[in-house]
Write a structure and sequence with these properties.
202 residues; alpha/beta; Rossmann fold; 8 strands; binds flavin mononucleotide
C-alpha cells in the first residue's frame, strides 16, 4: 500500500490524541504510511491521499479548531477519501432513524438502547449518531465521509481549562452518563480502523 494517510486531531485532555495514535499504530501494522498530527500543526494536506480527522465532541459538535479546519479544506476533502471520529461521553440512538447512506460506528462502551424521538430529552436528541452526522454535514455539506465513528473518551478535570472545568462539573451534576474517568476502549478503535482500511485503501 503506498497511499499516504493523515490522521489529525484536536484535544484538550488527551483522549482524542490517544485514539489518533491507536489508529496510526494499526495503520503501521497494515503497512499503510500514516502521519499522526495535532490539527494546529497541519497547514497543507495536499501531500496526503486520505484524511482522518478526530474531534472531542463539545456540546454535540466538533471543536471550533476542527470546524475551522474542515471549512478551510472543504474543497480538498471533497476529492479525497475522508473519515471522521468523535470522542465523547454520550451517544444515543433514535429508534427507527438511520442515516440512509452513511453508517456510524458506535463504540460498544456506550451501551445504547434506542429510544423514540418523542420520548427523548434535548440532551439525548443532541447526542444521537444521526445528530452528529447532521452537525458535520452542516460544516461541510458537500463532503461525504467514508465512515464516521464515535468513541467513548475521557473526562479529566485536571486537564481542562478553568471555564470548561466549571461547565463540565455542572453537566456531570445534570447528566448521569457524563462522569469523570477514562473510558477509552482501544479494541473498538482497532476494530474501526481495520474496517476503515478495507474502504480507504482499496
Ligand atoms: C467544553 C466541553 C464540552 C463537552 N461537551 C460534551 C457533550 O456535549 N457531550 C459529551 O458526550 N461529551 C462532552 N464533553 C466531553 C468530551 O467530549 C470528552 O471528554 C472527550 O473525550 C474529550 O476529548 P479530549 O480528551 O481529547 O479533550 C465535553 C467536554 C468539554 C471540555
Amino acid at each position: 500500500m503506498n497511499k499516504k494517510i493523515l490522521i489529525t486531531y484536536d484535544t484538550e485532555s488527551g483522549s482524542t490524541r490517544e485514539v489518533a495514535e491507536i489508529i496510526g499504530e494499526e495503520m503501521d501494522k497494515l503497512k499503510a504510511e500514516s502521519d499522526v498530527r495535532n490539527i494546529v500543526d497541519v497547514d497543507n494536506i495536499s501531500e496526503y491521499d486520505t484524511i482522518i480527522i478526530g474531534s472531542p465532541n463539545w456540546y454535540g459538535k466538533p471543536t471550533p479548531k476542527i470546524k475551522k479546519f474542515l471549512k478551510k479544506h472543504n474543497q480538498e476533502l471533497m476529492q479525497k477519501p475522508f473519515a471522521f471520529f468523535f470522542t465523547c461521553m454520550c451517544l444515543t440512538k433514535i429508534e427507527g432513524e438511520n442515516s440512509p447512506d452513511l453508517s456510524v460506528f458506535q463504540d460498544p462502551q456506550f451501551n445504547i438502547i434506542p429510544k423514540l424521538k418523542n420520548e427523548m430529552n434535548m440532551w439525548e436528541k443532541s447526542h444521537a449518531g444521526s445528530f452528529y452526522i447532521k452537525q458535520l454535514s452542516k460544516i461541510i455539506p458537500d463532503v461525504k465521509p467514508v465512515s464516521v465513528a464515535v468513541f467513548k473518551g475521557g473526562l479529566d478535570f485536571s486537564r481542562l481549562s478553568f471555564f470548561h472545568k466549571i461547565v463540565m462539573k455542572l453537566i456531570t451534576l445534570m447528566i448521569k452518563e457524563v462522569q469523570s474517568g477514562e473510558y477509552l476502549n482501544p479494541d473498538a478503535v482497532r476494530e474501526w480502523t481495520e474496517k476503515l482500511c478495507v474502504d480507504l485503501l482499496k
